[in-house]
Known about the structure:
- The protein has helices at residues 2-20, 33-36, 60-74, 88-98, 102-107, 163-175; strands at 29-32, 48-52, 77-83, 111-117, 127-128, 131-132, 138-142, 148-154.
- It is an alpha/beta fold.
- A hairpin with a 2-residue loop joins β5 (127-128) and β6 (131-132).
- The longest helix has 19 residues, at 2-20.
- The N and C termini lie far apart (79 Å).
Amino acid sequence: xxxxxxxxxxxxxxxxxxxxxxxxxxxxxxxxxxxxxxxxxxxxxxxxxxxxxxxxxxxxxxxxxxxxxxxxxxxxxxxxxxxxxxxxxxxxxxxxxxxxxxxxxxxxxxxxxxxxxxxxxxxxxxxxxxxxxxxxxxxxxxxxxxxxxxxxxxxxxxxxxxxxxxxxxxxxxxxxxx
Length: 178
């Protein structure tokens, strides 16, 4: 008899705990690339972090401020990337990362990429809130407060959408190389 009571009571307690103390959901989806992609270069320490923000998560400027502070705490450069699933250069960049392309991994090393899909964020009249641009993908550097530094680069900067063209341009932009 007591065994039956235990079998009935324990699931009720577990359900009550889940109801009273639900698991906290994260608003941003972070993917530390250095942990999820194996590289052949053991000196690679800082890696890169990718976060996708969505309009339902809250105010964009507040989220950018939070993410920029996280980036600086990690010693990474916060970068906003506007992209779309239908964008050929965006697809090429994503494919290069999925293929663990070493040129791309090296170029993006030390960055904290904050991705925003232009369709989700309602890109209208070349603008999404205080970001103004004509082409995607486009990357904006942020300061520690999440504000634009005035430095940006778009997908027209490298020609054909292959890692051999993209990586050197992005490496120069991210790491201020002349």
